[in-house]
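#struct-pred
JK: can someone run the complex with FE2/S2 (inorganic) cluster? inputs below
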Amino acid sequence: LSAPEYPYSKKVIEHYRSPRNVGKIEQAEGFGEHISDICGDMMQIYLKVEGNIITDAKYETFGCAASVASGSAITELIKGKTVEEAERVTDKEIIDYLEGLPQPKIHCAVLAVTALHTAIEDYKSKP
Ligand code: FES
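RT: done, structure tokens with the ligand placed:
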């Protein structure tokens, strides 16, 4: 076998093989879906919010290994944060959490952040 085209960190491979928080949340306070302009892959994020704290987060993606790992990372990163803190999570924080992403896969972390922002907008739009 030849070397993989994109060498992933051990952390990316581990989150790809055992992704955290995959699934849906019934009656989520926030739901967001985004399709990447770059690759056409999709991510959905569900938020459970109690007293402005994100108490649970789940995701589903129809995307690459880096999007699976990014969804896993972002849902882990935002649990326990306030909505405002979660809104400030950046693609760089996801990439750091995953101990790096190859340059051609940076947009997969951006997909996760954008799906999260859509879910937070949905939460904020509700009375
Ligand atoms: Fe589309 Fe990674 S290539 S999300």
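RT: quick notes.
The chain has a mean pLDDT of 95.
The chain has five helices and three strands.
JK: thanks, will look after standup
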